[in-house]
Design brief:
14 strands; globular; 3-stranded mixed β-sheet; HAD_sf; 5'-nucleotidase activity; 327 residues; alpha/beta; 5'(3')-deoxyribonucleotidase; 9 helices; 26% helix; Rossmann fold
Length: 327
């Protein structure tokens, strides 16, 4: 039986004996008399007062998840740790709060990372190859790039230039020869070893895919190793892929699913750096930026939402004997 992570369930009250909980996690009970924490008494927190009869008592946790609270229940005069709860939630005794985090605490955060423009320097590769192949033609400097489609911007510059720039990235060897984005390889290698985290590369192949698909696999194996070859997803529609986070340089991602499960983190690239995002959308400036903070904040947010959903619903999925803390 798995132990609930101590980092998520750290309390100022020591646990000395095991207690019954959900099917996956074991929680501890304190002494039978029910300790009163001196610090709580000093600041007047409700944990220094007896619990309401028949109600799960909300005890503010000292863990990093400051927006959650520990639910503890008075059983035979003692306190039983049950579940991390969002603020303001009480659960009636007899409801399955003790195992409410059983599914969510053990769930793994799934992260999708785009390839072109996020891991591989597509824009820089296009410009270098275009200048080499068409040295006398007008071109678009990276600082002047606007809009996701490089082909459309070149076409606006001159009609025939759209086809010419497309011939560059449709050529054999183009995708395999792309340079990694600075810090991308190191970030992926670190991310895949993060606890309770699943990482996949999610990329859209060209419609003219003769060389693109094979070279994407070869690029991943060359720069990230065979482990990531098993984690490469190629799809024209990323909205149908289930995940928690998507790092992608495309500013607008649409598809068959109008409300994708993932949160889109816009990865800054030359063509989107001028865009101003509306709250609550988030941006990652580069792999030197705090991508770890984004991952962990998403993990906390998802845990709180799942815990709250578990606590306000009974076994039938209907709102049961749950009520908000009036405080």
């Amino acid at each position: 039986m798995e132990e609930f992570p101590h980092s998520l369930l750290r309390s100022e009250t020591p646990s000395v004996t095991p207690a019954l909980a959900g099917p996956r996690h074991r929680f501890g009970t304190t002494s039978a008399r029910g300790p009163r924490n001196a610090q709580c008494r000093e600041r007047g927190d409700p944990c220094s007062r007896p619990a309401r009869r028949g109600l799960m008592h909300i005890h503010k946790t000292s863990s990093a998840q400051s927006s959650c609270r520990l639910a503890t229940e008075a059983l035979s005069g003692g306190w039983r740790r049950a579940c991390l709860l969002p603020r303001g939630v009480y659960a009636r005794r007899g409801q399955p709060a003790a195992g409410a985090m059983a599914g969510s605490a053990a769930s793994r955060l799934r992260v999708l990372v785009d390839m072109d423009g996020v891991l591989a320097d597509f824009e820089g590769g296009v410009l270098r190859a275009f200048l080499a192949r068409y040295p006398g033609e007008p071109h678009v400097e990276l600082a002047e790039r606007r809009g996701f489609s490089v082909r459309e911007q070149y076409r606006r510059l001159r009609e025939d230039l759209g086809a010419k720039v497309a011939s560059v990235y449709e050529s054999p060897g183009f995708f395999l020869g792309l340079e990694p984005i600075p810090g991308a390889i190191e970030a992926m290698q670190e991310m895949i070893h993060m606890q309770d985290t699943e990482v996949f590369i999610c990329t859209s192949p060209l419609l003219k895919y003769e060389h693109c698909i094979l070279e994407k696999y070869s690029w991943v194996e060359k720069h990230l190793g065979p482990e990531f070859v098993e984690r490469l997803i190629l799809t024209r529609d990323k909205t149908i892929v289930s995940a928690d986070l998507l790092f992608d340089d495309k500013d607008t991602i649409k598809g068959a699913e109008p409300k994708p499960s993932w949160e889109h983190i816009l990865f800054t690239c030359c063509h989107n750096k001028h865009l101003e995002l509306q709250t609550p959308r988030r941006r990652l400036q580069s792999w030197a930026d705090d991508w770890r903070g984004i991952v962990e904040s998403k993990r906390r947010s998802d845990a709180e939402k799942e815990c709250y959903a578990s606590l306000i619903a009974n076994g039938n999925g209907q709102v049961g004997n749950w009520q908000r803390n009036p405080i």
